[in-house]
Write a structure and sequence with these properties.
21 helices; alpha+beta; elongated; 6-stranded antiparallel sheet; 570 residues; Beta-lactamase
């Protein structure tokens, strides 16, 4: 029955003076409408929160792991670099430090700290700014998971609704571990999570941290950049002390324990000593993975990427080439180009190098060196930098003649090439994997042709493997987080030459105790090449400048390149 003005007042209302009846009825109606409004308000945000996939909270982007051909892990970043940690692997002291600093009632509240939220709301109204959020760890996990960044009342209400869902579906342990696995600690781009922070800052797993290191890590959270021990160790230590003071306030420790903890040794690593591999080879792996796997799968993580890289050989080849170029630059007869004579951009004095090694029978990439120093220039010259070949083109002139049944004259490429003509030489060179451009005159026999280091390695493998041209590949197999194969590569070979012609072409190479080599240079003395057939496969090495410049003391450089091969054979 509805109330109308003519209805007699209820029994309880008769005891109240008549002049208050209207006010009381208005208050009751207002309260009723308020309850209805609150109901629909909650229903709206609950429905909105329900539209979000709650399983996303548990789908932490795991680290993608990269392995070499021997299944040894390479410390490389491909996509996410999060190394997940379980709650049971967290030191109990770190858990208490986080609770004291960030969320005192974490284990008892429902996900939303009502008193703190009320205080923050009052302060925001007074200051007319949305500065205080009173976020619990659960709220921060919800915000980070669904990227709720905008500061507005609508976003805050949505965050609260999502937090209540998170608390309903996940345990407190899962929430804390999820929070610590997601947040940024200021280590650097691509690095997230407490395990990665512990490894990079302290050189150890999070489970092995002492109390002082735990407190310092928790202190970093509120200002990952400004409190990073790499950036400001004093600020990081100050934050550590503040965390310990909060733990005293919560009776987790006392003043004597604080003094003991502060005295504990903390060894901070140097940023330059972080072991994450950054190289041309890893850059090539990243590009290849991006072609083979969707961006969503890479971001979700948990991939196991098995490459063809022979990392011991890769590092050995890099070291030997670095030594050779450094030795040349230190010799008195060597003169670096001057800036005035240099028409291009960059460092005119920086002698570059590139090398590619393919497994001769399969085309698997064993080593890929795109330049002398990745930190100096990340440009990978292996695939895109076309260089003049000069005398290094002679094996392919020999292959063209042998394919036509003509004799090969080692050391006389012009005499050899004249038997088949420029078009015949170009045709065979293209079949071996070189794409030119080619001169259409007799200058072609002298090496008037350009190729990339990768093409030269492919061509050399073709000659060495009975005329079968390989398709180079860098990824053997990729498995997902469930260990299911999602992509794999198998060797692919294409008939380019007859086996007899391929064998005959190799007679122009010089035989050494462990390999066959050919060291050549361009007539302009601006490029130097070494081709090597050895136990590790077919290797093409190039040395020169990004913008062609004369390499002074080139004869000595050729000797140094030959010395590299000798050392690699030992």
């Amino acid at each position: 029955m509805s109330w109308r003005p003519q209805d007699p007042p209820a029994r309880w209302l008769r005891k109240i003076p008549a002049r208050y009846h209207k006010l009381i009825r208005l208050t009751l109606w207002t309260g009723l409408f308020g309850l209805v409004a609150v109901f629909f308000f909650c229903l709206y945000y609950s429905s909105l929160a329900a539209s979000y996939d709650i399983s996303e909270v548990g789908k932490l982007p795991q680290r993608n792991r990269v392995y070499d051909r021997y299944n040894n892990e390479i410390d490389a970043v491909v996509g996410s670099n999060i190394d997940l940690i379980a709650f049971d692997d967290l030191p109990p002291f770190l858990v208490k430090a986080l609770q004291a600093r960030e969320d005192a009632e974490f284990f008892t509240h429902s996900g939303v700290h009502l008193r703190g939220l009320a205080r923050a709301t009052v302060r925001n109204i007074k200051e007319r700014k949305f500065k205080q959020g009173a976020s619990t760890l659960s709220m921060q996990l919800a915000r980070n998971t669904y990227e709720i960044r905008a500061k507005s009342m609508h976003r805050k209400f949505l965050e609260i609704a999502l937090t209540l869902r998170v608390e309903k579906h996940y345990s407190k342990k899962e929430i804390m571990a999820g929070y610590l696995n997601r947040i940024y600690f200021g280590v650097g781009a691509g690095h997230y999570g407490v395990q990665d922070a512990a490894t990079n800052y302290f050189g150890k797993s999070v489970k092995d941290l002492n109390e002082a290191e735990c407190a310092m890590l928790i202190g970093i959270i509120r200002g990952p950049h400004i409190f990073s021990p790499w950036r400001d160790l004093d600020a990081a230590e100050s934050q550590r002390n503040q965390v310990l003071d909060r733990m005293i306030a919560m009776n987790f420790i006392n003043a004597e324990e604080k003094a003991r903890i502060i005295a504990l040794p903390i060894h901070i690593t140097k940023p330059e000593n972080v072991t994450t591999e950054k190289s041309y080879a890893i850059q090539a792996v990243v590009k290849e993975v991006n072609k083979l796997v969707s961006a969503e799968e890479i971001q979700l993580g948990g991939l196991k990427i098995y490459t063809t890289l022979d990392m011991p050989w890769q590092r050995r080849l890099e070291d030997e080439m670095q030594k050779a170029l450094s030795a040349l630059e230190k010799e008195k007869a060597y003169q670096a180009p001057t800036l005035a004579a240099y028409p291009g951009k960059g460092d005119p004095t920086y002698l570059q190098m590139t090398a590619v090694t393919l497994e001769t029978k399969t085309g698997a990439i064993l080593a890929q060196i795109g330049g002398r120093n990745y930190s100096h220039s990340a440009f990978d010259r292996c695939h895109t930098a076309r260089r003049d070949l000069g005398t290094a083109f002679e094996p392919f002139v020999a292959a063209a003649a042998a394919q036509r049944g003509r004799p090969v004259y080692p050391g006389s490429p012009v005499q050899t090439g004249r038997q088949v003509g420029p078009e015949g030489v170009e045709r065979i060179a293209r079949r071996c994997g070189l794409s030119g451009p080619f001169a259409n005159t007799e200058d072609l026999y002298r090496g008037a042709v350009s190729a990339t280091p990768m093409e030269m390695a492919i061509g050399l493998s073709t000659l060495a493997h009975q005329g079968q041209r390989p398709r180079p590949f860098l990824i053997r197999e990729i498995r997902n987080s469930e260990n299911e194969v999602i992509t794999s590569n198998q060797p692919e070979l294409f008939a380019a030459l007859t086996p007899a012609a391929a064998r005959q072409s190799l007679t122009v190479l010089k035989q050494t105790k462990g390999s066959d080599i050919f060291t050549g240079a361009t007539g302009s003395e601006r490029e130097a090449w070494t081709l090597r057939l050895g136990p590790k496969g077919s290797t093409a090495i190039w040395v020169g400048f990004d913008q062609p410049q004369v390499i002074t003391h080139e004869a000595r450089l050729k000797q140094l390149l030959s010395d590299i091969v000798d050392r690699l054979d030992n």
